Amino acid sequence: GIVEARVKSLLNEENADETPVAPRVGIIMGSDSDLPVMKEAAKVLKDFDVSAEVRIVSAHRTPELMFSYASSARERGIQVIIAGAGGAAHLPGMVAALTPLPVIGVPVRASALDGLDSLLSIVQMPRGVPVATVAINNATNAALLALRMLGVSDTALQARMVQFQEDARDIVLEKTEKLEK
Ligand code: RP5
């Protein structure tokens, strides 16, 4: 459909039509206006060769779709859901209420309140229904957290995370070395 085509073009997926691999991570967002932020999560997962699907699912505009997406995610093989939303950001919490999977919420800076509204909407979940909330617009960290979760039972993936952390450390050390010269 039109949304899928827009998602593909925004993600710059040259190989989008190759044989599909069952997605392990579901990346969903309330609106296509969240895509510029949320596509960073897709990029990170791609760099780690972890399959993901990207969907527009709105708690307010498509409540039935949200219900069917969240309640079928586990049986479709999804292992972690990353949900981004802005403003009255109900999507991550509602999805967490409908699935036993871990849900990571990304507060998107979308309104006059600069993202603080999204952050508070996502982070202030009632006891019993957790959403792991990352910083405003930080879809990169949402993907890295999803990878760490998958890494608990996927040693090859966890080894890649260790490598990623070592690379990040080396970059900082190299910068320090340059400063000292
Ligand atoms: C939320 O409202 C979306 O997640 C988005 O961040 C915000 C604005 O959506 P649009 O009006 O741009 O579609 O539901």
UniProtKB/TrEMBL annotation:
Highest taxon in the source lineage: Eukaryota
Annotated keywords: ATP-binding, Decarboxylase, Lyase, Nucleotide-binding, Purine biosynthesis
GO molecular function, one term: ATP binding
Family: In the C-terminal section; belongs to the AIR carboxylase family. Class I subfamily.
GO CC field: chloroplast
GO biological process: 'de novo' IMP biosynthetic process
Protein name per its UniProtKB record: phosphoribosylaminoimidazole carboxylase
